From TrEMBL:
GO molecular-function term, one example from the UniProt record: ATP binding
Protein name: ABC transporter
Segments crossing the lipid bilayer: none
Organism the protein comes from: Natronorubrum daqingense
Domain of life, source organism: Archaea
């Protein structure tokens, strides 16, 4: 049984399809990132899973319990930790009083250990807390009863780099213990470091669910070439070269591809995104002495721009990233 199961989940507000036929599962023991731009529908999914919204249609299950059934939801919540985007703690209470209240409701198996990691000022009133301290208190209340599953809405927002690092280590150790983590995020570096898989939502519709690694693999590499002498431009006219940018003899500036470029043109320095066979590229470059060559993973930001792009450009809606890579061989731009 998966930790989270969504089947055809839709939530409509009048004409707004905040979630539209969303189906995916989060397996036990995995860290799953839920990503999307502002207004994509992430919070709607989370709030529906927590029983705070009723779906227009479809079903959601947490640890096997149907979230639209009150008794089952209560059962699921015993084993669940939830950190909302802005935790609504009583501002007139101290951090310590908040923890005592949570302990009386959900139990407390390990707040002492958690307080060593995330150290909110317990004797201060919550109203005097900074955003980061509210977050730290929230992390303690989310994990203190040893939940099997945690749902975190933008968990690291407001945390300083040291705390973010500590949080990342902590999540990995939770995964070791078999805890399932579902979190929404805009912080792509943390998604890359932490997640096993990601779900990407856009305009209420799920556009991809896949392992972070395969998302990165399919998105290609960033290649930088610096040659001793000019390389004929047609050398780069092979499958998988995109967004070729060159600054050298005969061809300055940016092209989406090399078709249509002057076949006499040469370049000595260029960068491009490459989704083809690296061996084929190296074979092509073999006869030209190089000063430097680097092949790196594409930044995750670029990957997501392929999904989100500009509205109206048809950026990956209903299309898998693999389909898009296939679409975009050497472009016909000129
Ligand atoms: N109560 C509501 N009434 C009408 N529309 C709503 C309501 N709540 C959300 N929406 C709309 O549903 C869509 C999805 O909103 P949601 O808050 O789920 O997005 P999100 O991905 O969490 O965004 P963000 O990253 O900005 O928090 C948006 O278009 C939003 O305006």
């Amino acid at each position: 049984m998966a930790a989270i199961e969504l089947e055809g989940l839709s939530k409509h507000y009048g004409d707004v399809r905040a979630n539209d036929d969303v189906t995916f599962s989060v397996e036990r023991g995995e860290i799953f990132g839920y990503l999307g731009p502002n207004g994509a529908g992430k919070t709607t999914t989370i709030r529906t899973l927590l029983g705070l919204l009723s779906p227009t249609s479809g079903t959601g299950r947490l640890l096997g319990h149907d979230v639209t059934d009150e008794a089952e939801l209560i059962e699921a919540k015993r084993k669940l930790g939830y950190l909302p985007d802005t935790p609504a703690f009583d501002e007139t209470a101290t951090g310590r009083e908040i923890l005592e209240l949570h302990a009386s409701i959900t139990g407390d198996e390990r707040s002492d250990d958690l307080l060593e990691l995330f150290d909110p000022p317990l004797d201060r009133l919550v109203r005097e807390y900074s955003h980061g301290n509210v977050r730290k208190l929230g992390l303690v209340t989310t994990f203190m009863h040893e939940p099997e599953l945690v749902i975190l809405d933008e968990p690291t927002s407001g945390l300083d780099p040291l705390m973010q690092h500590r949080f990342a280590e902590f999540l990995r150790s939770e995964r070791q213990r078999g805890v399932t983590v579902f979190f929404s995020s805009h912080v792509l570096g943390e998604v890359r470091r932490l997640c096993d898989r990601v779900g990407i939502i856009r305009n209420g519709r799920l556009v991809a669910v896949e392992p972070v690694e395969s998302l990165l693999d399919r998105s290609g590499k960033v290649v930088r070439v610096r040659a001793v002498e000019g390389i004929p431009i047609e050398t780069f006219a092979i499958d998988g070269v995109h967004d070729l940018e060159a600054t050298s003899n005969g061809f300055d500036g940016h092209r989406d591809g090399v078709d249509g470029a002057d076949s006499e043109a040469t370049i000595t320095e260029c960068t491009f995104t490459f989704t083809g066979d690296v061996n084929a590229l190296l074979e092509r470059l073999r006869e030209y002495p190089l000063q430097d060559l680097s092949i790196e993973e594409a930044p995750l930001e670029d990957v997501f721009m392929r999904f989100y792009g500009e509205e109206g450009e048809g950026a990956a809606e209903e299309t898998s990233p693999g389909d898009r890579s296939a679409e975009t061989g050497v472009s016909d731009d000129a």
